[in-house]
Structures are given as structure tokens and as C-alpha cells.
Design goal:
Length: 423
């Protein structure tokens, strides 16, 4: 009998989790039993992310060892991220105008969720401002940033440390060897953690369905449909065109990332696939130096799925309260989202915080977000998967732009995937 692959195991776990959740809807005992399993899996994921990001960046930057080259790559990467996320926000706004998900919604039947935690975070984040966001990139204590899992300061430190290792030449080789060993060991740890993924997925989705029930989806079905249709359009049309322009195919990329996309979708955590994503993009022909820089940075600056969701959700709240935003106001909304979506990247519950900040700056009622909170998990799943596709494609685009993409390696890897599917 053919052994089930990780993607199949996760998919089966997803179906079982939804079934168990639906059967035991509202049953506190089942939730109490299942919740720790999901939490353990998320903790395992968070445990491996920071060491992998640090080791991968240090190894790749020390390998490049050229500040000028790194600065050039950084500039191009940020420019690409800004263009793509702006397109994503614009498409989200267009979709909200087309679908009108908030129009004619009977809010009396909807259960409000508590968003007080997000409102507190929003006040803190709003008081920071742009200058503070820039200052926050530079860590005052790298160990504090590691403890909090704050990726931007960690990336900043790792880049500098990698350059330091390159600058001291021979003396830096033992340190570089150490980080190469750490990276290899962490990839092994990742593979072991992934074996627990189906159990984590089963528990996470089971608890969500048991808590909110499938019935919650019906009144907000229009919003869920609008978000999902827009995300599919963005991946196959916008990212499809970008992939074609960079000499690859979005269908090939999706085939390569099959396991990671199912895992990202079911866990609603892009961190869950970060280590494997970097590993896969290297096998697909992207050099380690570019992959290790572009993908972790993209987790902060290139959240296409989150950008689309934030745009649709902001207009959804306006429509729900019968507030008609003019073209000028929607352009302002686009500009506000361009800034808030970048500045909030390291904040817990970032998407909610961005929406609350955006609504506040546009003078829209914040209470509307409470209605989305109940189904946020279902929306989070698809936006996480889209973020993963966007960041993987970014690594390919940057590799091609730098003229360092290994097409032969990519073809060989795709062939090996096809053969394993046939076997």
C-alpha cells in the first residue's frame, strides 16, 4: 500500500477536524481536550522559526559578503513588495465594490466577538507612528527580540552579523561553520515537527468549528465568498502574470508548494511553512543568499493575502453601516492601507489591528470588526496560503532579476516531483 504523503494526511485531518467540530459544536469538554494539541503544534512551529531565520540569514549574508550587493538586493526587494501589495489592496477594494459583501446584512442575527484586546493593541500601535516603526527595526536587545519572535529586528541583526563574519575573513570561518551546522540541524528538526502536523491541524480546525459552528458562516457567507474568489483571482491572474513574466508558471509553483499550501491553509500560520519554504525554493533553483533574505523579509513586507483581506474587510464594515465611500475616499483608504499594513507587521493579530487603525483613520465605526472576528479563522486560512504563494514567487522574481536563478536545477526538481507523484 502506497504511503500517504503529508498533504494527504493533512487533508484527511482537516476533514476529520471539521466533522468532529460540527458533531460536538458547543461541547466545552471536547474543546478542552483538543485545544492543547493545536497549541503544542503552534508552539513547535514558533520554536523553530527564529533559529532558522537567524542561521539562514547569517549563512547567506556571510556567503555574499558584499554590502553593496546586499543593499541593491534589498532595494529591489522592497520596491517589488510595495508594487505587488499595492496591486493587492487595489484589487481588494475593487472586489468589495463589485460584491458589496456588507450591503443588506442583518446584524441582529450575528454574534459579536470581543475585540477589546485588538483595540488595546491598536491604540499602542497607532501611538507609535512611522518614525517609531523605523526605530523598532533596530533591536535594543536582540535576545528580547528573539524571545518575542519579532522578525524585523532579528533580520536586521542577522544581516549585520553575517556581514561582520564576512569582514573578518579566516577568523569568521569557524563561526560560519557553526551556523551552517545549526541550519542543517534545524531543517532536520523541522521535518520531525512536520510529522505532528496532521494532529495539530485536526485539533486547530476542530476547536474552531466546535466553538463557532458551521452555522456562523451562513450570514457572513457573502464576505467569505468575496474574499475567497478575490484571492483565487489574485493568485491565478496577477501572480500568474508575474510568474509568466519571470519565465515560470504559477501552476508549476503551486504543484511544488502543494504540501506547504495545505499546511499554511489548515493551520492559518505562515510561520508553519517558513523553514520548508526556504528549503523548497533553494531546490527550485533560487540561491540560498536570495531565498534567506527575500522570504523572511516578505513575511513582514509582502503579505498579499492580508492586504486583499484588509481592503475588503474595511469596505465591508462601511457597507454594513450604509456608509458610501467616494472614489477619493477609497484612494485615501488605499494609501492608508499601504502604510498601516507595513507598520503593523510584527503586531499580534496584525490583520485586525490594521483594519481597526484604518477604520479609525477614516472615521468609520470600529464595532463592525467584531462581527468578522467570529469567522476570522476561515478568512485567515486563505490569506495565509496566498501570502505563502506571493513570497515564494518573490524569491523566484528576485533570483531572476539578479541573474542567479538556476533553471536547470528547477527543471530537474519539477521532474522529480512529477515522478514521485506517478510512483
Amino acid at each position: 500500500m502506497k504511503k500517504f504523503g503529508l498533504a494527504t494526511q493533512i487533508f484527511v485531518a482537516l476533514i476529520l477536524g471539521i466533522s468532529v467540530g460540527a458533531v460536538f459544536h458547543g461541547n466545552e469538554t471536547v474543546m478542552v481536550i483538543m485545544e492543547p494539541i493545536g497549541d503544542i503544534f503552534i508552539h513547535l512551529i514558533k520554536m523553530i522559526v527564529v533559529p532558522i531565520v537567524i542561521a539562514a540569514l547569517v549563512v547567506s549574508i556571510a556567503g555574499v559578503g558584499d554590502m553593496k550587493k546586499l543593499g541593491k538586493l534589498g532595494g529591489k526587494t522592497i520596491l517589488y513588495f510595495e508594487i505587488v501589495t499595492t496591486i493587492a489592496i487595489a484589487i481588494g477594494l475593487l472586489a468589495a465594490n463589485l460584491f458589496h459583501p456588507g450591503s443588506g446584512l442583518d446584524t441582529s442575527n450575528l454574534e459579536k466577538s470581543d475585540i477589546s484586546n485588538y483595540e488595546e493593541t491598536t491604540k499602542t500601535a497607532e501611538s507609535q507612528g512611522f518614525a517609531e516603526s523605523i526605530v523598532h527595526i533596530v533591536p535594543k536587545n536582540i535576545f528580547e527580540s528573539m524571545a518575542q519572535g519579532d522578525l524585523l529586528p532579528i533580520i536586521f541583526f542577522s544581516v549585520f552579523f553575517g556581514l561582520g563574519i564576512a569582514a573578518i575573513g579566516e577568523k569568521g570561518k569557524p563561526v560560519l561553520g557553526f551556523f551552517e551546522g545549526v541550519l542543517e540541524a534545524m531543517f532536520w528538526v523541522t521535518n520531525q515537527v512536520m510529522k505532528f502536523a496532521p494532529f495539530g491541524v485536526f485539533a486547530l480546525i476542530g476547536v474552531t468549528v466546535a466553538k463557532f459552528g458551521i452555522v456562523t458562516l451562513i450570514p457572513l457567507g457573502k464576505l467569505v465568498l468575496a474574499v475567497y474568489v478575490t484571492m483565487v483571482f489574485f493568485v491565478f491572474v496577477v501572480l500568474g502574470i508575474i510568474a509568466k513574466m519571470s519565465g515560470t508558471s504559477i501552476f508549476v509553483l503551486l504543484k511544488v508548494l502543494k504540501d506547504e499550501l495545505i499546511l499554511a491553509f489548515t493551520t492559518a500560520s505562515s510561520e508553519a511553512v517558513l523553514p520548508r519554504l526556504m528549503e523548497k525554493m533553494e531546490k527550485f533553483g533560487c540561491p540560498k543568499s536570495i531565498t534567506s533574505f527575500v522570504i523572511p523579509t516578505g513575511y513582514t513586507f509582502n503579505l498579499d493575502g492580508s492586504s486583499i483581506y484588509q481592503a475588503i474587510a474595511s469596505l465591508f464594515v462601511a457597507q454594513m453601516y450604509g456608509i458610501d465611500l467616494s472614489i477619493t475616499q477609497q484612494i485615501t483608504l488605499l494609501l492608508v492601507l499601504m502604510l498601516t499594513s507595513k507598520g503593523m507587521a510584527g503586531v499580534p493579530g496584525a490583520s485586525f489591528v490594521v483594519i481597526l487603525t484604518t477604520l479609525g483613520s477614516m472615521g468609520l465605526p470600529l464595532e463592525g470588526v467584531a462581527f468578522i472576528a467570529g469567522i476570522d479563522r476561515i478568512l485567515d486560512m486563505v490569506r495565509t496560503a496566498v501570502n505563502v504563494v506571493g513570497n515564494s514567487l518573490a524569491a523566484i522574481v528576485m533570483s531572476k532579476w539578479e541573474g542567479e536563478f538556476n533553471q536547470e536545477k528547477a527543471n530537474h526538481y519539477v521532474d522529480s516531483i512529477k515522478q514521485s507523484d506517478v510512483a
